[in-house]
Amino acid sequence: MSQLSVTSFYNNSKIVQRLILWIRENAINSKSTAITSGAALAVTLLVLTKLWRRRSDKDTPTPFIGIPTPKGCRPIVGHLLTIGPDRIQKFHEWHKEFGPIFHIKLGVNNTLVVADPYITHDLLVTNGKHTSNRPAGIFMHDFGSGGLGGIASLQSNDDMWRTVRRIIDNSLDPHKIRNEFSPVLHKEAEEYVDLVATGENIDPLPHLLRVSLNFTLIITFGVRTTSIDDPVYKKAIYCITKNMSFSDFKHVGGMFIPTLKLFDPILGVRKDVNDHMEKHCIPFYLEQVEKALSNDGYNLTKVLNDELNEGKKTGPYHILLPTINDVVVAGTDTTAVTITWAFLQISTMPEVQKKIQGEIDIFVKKNGRVPYFWERGETPYMIAVQRECFRMRPTTEFGISHAASQDFEWNGNYIPEGTWIMPNNMEAHLNPAKYPEPEKFIPERFLENYETMTASANGGAKERDQFNFGWGRYVDTKIK
Questions:
Q1: Where is the secretion signal located (predicted)?
Q2: Structure pTM?
């Protein structure tokens, strides 16, 4: 509070004048005790603070004044009860009623839900310096790092986040993937085909989970699993599945309604997370770190350890572990589920399958083998089908929300600090202006797109093929 503000505040507030006079009288009264004076001062400061906040609120612009808000906002819970069990459908209805952007309250949190990719790009990329934080979670485990590690839990304006992001980006550089990992990853794909090409009905997901887990383990630790019965596979999938279960309302409700945190001792929210991490995940990751550091080949753990842990091979590895956990969890389930959805979509489209097979047959006849990633230009229809599958069934309906790191103005609207911004991938991928006849499966719409997904994800909204991989500073590091 500036001196001018204090003077103005004092001169215009009789309550403040009376309180200060009362303190003076008590201070010079010989019967007055230090406790009484201290209490008087505390009361005065409390009143001053509340009065100042009330005055400040009058000077603050009204937020979201040009952005529509649905009815049904209730005290404490906001729109949570109005949304109901089917968030996708309710948001679809609200977008039809209110347009490409609307404002809701998720508990106490102001939230902007955005369907139009051009608006999302403007908010999260053009205005990225204001909107590149993440909503603070309540069930994160920092692995004893003191909040220093990780890439999913840290904010993008944090020096450690930038360091970790740079290391991962460099480690997953396309040239490094091609030179170091392509033959190994190619072998994983061949092994998967041999497992499922039995002519019998088979659930592809467990085997796809192992393939995507192996991709992650090979790059991160230089190790792999041999089957879905492998103890390493079972431990890893248990850790991943349990981690993901902590996104239920019991564990995240306090993000929306802070008073629910008072029930943590009864519900055991923090204990659930700590027990799982300390009894299962940390021992598993430490075992893999030791393997990685003794491995002769290249792996991400070595690079992280060299930069974040000064290359020490005796631990502690508490700064490495949050990042390792983020990479393993984010890189396994999402990949497997996305590919499973793609299989499900084209399983009912025999003509699409024939066209893909025809492209591959031509390549095999010419080269005596199936194509590598960098030869994807030889199979344009197959790549177009892949992109269309991603569009029709996004990896996540809404991705991970961003949060405003400070107050800012957008299109004449005052957006307060802490506002959540939620990209609606489902609606963005059904935008008829960008995708004509969006309800139809039309791979041909992508036949002229020769960019890698990395290049596409880092382009403008007009150039992007789809929006699965995030926005701005949080574009996924694992896509190629």
A1: none
A2: 0.80
